[in-house]
Amino acid sequence: MNLEVLSSLERKPGTTVKEAVKVEKLLIKGVAKDEDVARIAIIGLPDTPGIAFRIFSLLAQRKINVDIILQSIGRDKTKDISFTVPVADKDAAMALLEEKAELFGAQRFEADDNVVKVSIVGAGMQSNPGVAAKMFEALFEANINIEMISTSEIKISVLIDRKDANIALNAVHDAFDFNNKA
């Protein structure tokens, strides 16, 4: 239904208001590889409110940038949180977490800089079903294990073993047929 908003002071055409339907076309623009990434895992955290806040506010205070974050479902009153940081911040983040371990009550901390983030970027990710599945299928067919996944409106990223980076890049590139895009 259209609605026309008129002025009560002047006799002239008003503004027509109508519902706009947004149709977003899938537009994958490329695949990217980020080798400047390390994964940190905090294992066996108490499954209580405020844990994530304490961890990430502490890292933010030290200007340690965090990217992909994954929190597990709590089991046996514990949960795990994994996240990525730039490789240059890995040691500082680990030292800080271990120094403040009593604030978190974690069972242990792990770090791994033998990982790479592979992403597809573009528009229409959320309004076009099957985009993630297509990416994951390409990685499966290349026998590449996914360690972490992150999605947004413009990007789907996976964290994989560093040794698989170029194979993954090529597999995903071929799956989305970037060579035949106009």
Describe the structure using short key phrases.
4-stranded antiparallel β-sheet; 10 strands; alpha+beta; 182 residues
Textual characterization of the structure:
- There is one protein chain.
- The protein has 182 residues and is of the alpha+beta class.
- It is 26% helix and 32% strand.
- It is built from 5 helices and 10 strands; from the N terminus they run E-E-E-E-H-E-E-H-H-E-E-H-E-E-H.
- The protein has helices spanning 51-61, 90-99, 101-104, 131-141, 165-175, and strands at 3-5, 15-17, 27-34, 38-46, 69-71, 78-85, 108-112, 115-123, 148-151, 155-161.
- The strands form 3 sheets. It has a 4-stranded antiparallel β-sheet, covered by helices on one side.
- Helix 4 crosses helix 5.
- The radius of gyration is 23 Å and the shape is extended.
- The two termini are 38 Å apart.
Following the backbone from N to C, one meets helices and strands in this order, namely: EEEEHEEHHEEHEEH
Order of neighbouring strands in the sheet with most strands = 3-8-10-9
Which spans have pLDDT < 50 for at least 5 consecutive residues?
A: none
Overall pLDDT: 88
- Helix/strand structural class: alpha+beta
Tally the helices: 5
Q: Judging from the principal axes of the Cα atoms, what is the shape? A: extended
Distance between the termini: 38 Å
What's the story with the biggest beta sheet? 4 strands, antiparallel
Helix content range of the residues, please?
25-40%
Strand content: 25-35%
- The radius of gyration computed from the alpha-carbon positions, rounded to a whole number of angstroms, is 23 Å
Count of strand segments = 10
